[in-house]
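Document type: protein sequence-to-structure record

Subject area: structural biology

Format: plain text, a pair of labelled lines:
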Amino acid sequence: MVKVYGKAVIGAASLLLFSNVMLGCSNDKEVILNTEGNTGKPKEPITLTIFNGQPGALNFESLGITEAIKKKFPHITLNIILRDPKSTDYKDLIAGGTLPDIIYESASFTVDRIIQNGFQYDLQELVKKNNFNLQQFEPNVLAQTQNANGEGKLYGLPFTMNRYALFYNKDIFDKLGVAYPKDGMTWDEVYDLAKKVTRVEQGTTYMGFAAIPNNMMLNNQLSLSPLDPREDKAVLNTDGWKLMFDNLKRFYEIPDNALVPTSETAKGSIAMALESHPLMIGWVKANPNINWDVVSLPVLKEKPGTGLKPATLALFISQTSKYKDEAFQIVSYLVSEQVQTMLSKQGVGTPLVNANVKNAFGQEVQELQGKNTGAFYYYKDAPPSPLRAADLTNVNVDFGKPFGDMVKNKADTNTVLRQFEEAINQAIATAKSDKAKK
């Protein structure tokens, strides 16, 4: 039995949720679990609560996840709660005494949502007990999941990912007589291409390139962190951050290439956009007439062969759970090749090394048929930023406004970075002061 409570938050990423599901046969080789003490007796029925902290990114029902769990573990009833910031958030669970056994959440929110609410539990003991193979994960993806908590502990296992690539509108390139982009291009090459396809033709403005500055900076290919790993201060006024800002800034210095949301791509007037696969699928659903494809995201000549930092969503087992062993069995099953292949076919990014799982990406997604889906895995993900000490103050760093103001005001990059660093340092000081008053 599966019970679902809460109101789903519908975002652009929810367009990824598809209903056609094919369940493969069970493959016991994929999950090695400790079975000592198994007497063959029927297992006691239990109920496990899964809190979906990112319902817009993953629907356990429509993707066949709950059905797969039910078949694999018939004695387990799932109580699935969907996060709604207005009514069913972490604080509401705690206040109501409904404590989850498993949490699905972005690894980047490990501190803010897992640790600060007291749900953190180091999985290393369960990994050892069950002979679970951590080497099945891409090394940088696993490292990013661990580094996100500031303690280097294994509070969650990578489950799904957003994969990035460069979307391009074939019709714009054809109309302007410019060759399509290709896999393996550098940022410099994409910049040159963007200049060629940014034009005003018969009253229509074609913009050459779009991206979300905040995503590009937070997931940057140099593995930079805006916060110092050892001190309570920002580290933004550096050569590395200047390179990242200037690299993206130049695109918006091209006449007529305005800084607009990547969602504008669905209108058919943007030639290239660097974005995650769920949003791309959303654009095509909104405008099925777009003639499009994808190539690998551009790389920095200073960091060849390196993609963005991983955009990972993980499964966490709560320290409040009375059924940690059973919860770990479910988590282990969900990251197995069998389940990951099922999800990959439906357009869900995988954290696994397994090439077969990656090659299955999008096989059952209508919008991805005939597309260059290998572009989403063309490069290895960049390493995570250095582990930041757990006792330091964490503040939200949003690059969107300072970058947008820089473009709008045609400001000097060094000045913008210096002012942004000062603002973050002030935010850190305020947060520390507020904490001391409590």
Observations:
- The chain is about 30% helix and 15% strand.
- Residues 1-38 have pLDDT under 50 and may be disordered.
- Residues 164-308+387-437 form a domain with the D-Maltodextrin-Binding Protein; domain 2 fold (CATH 3.40.190.10).
- The first helix runs from residue 65 to 72.
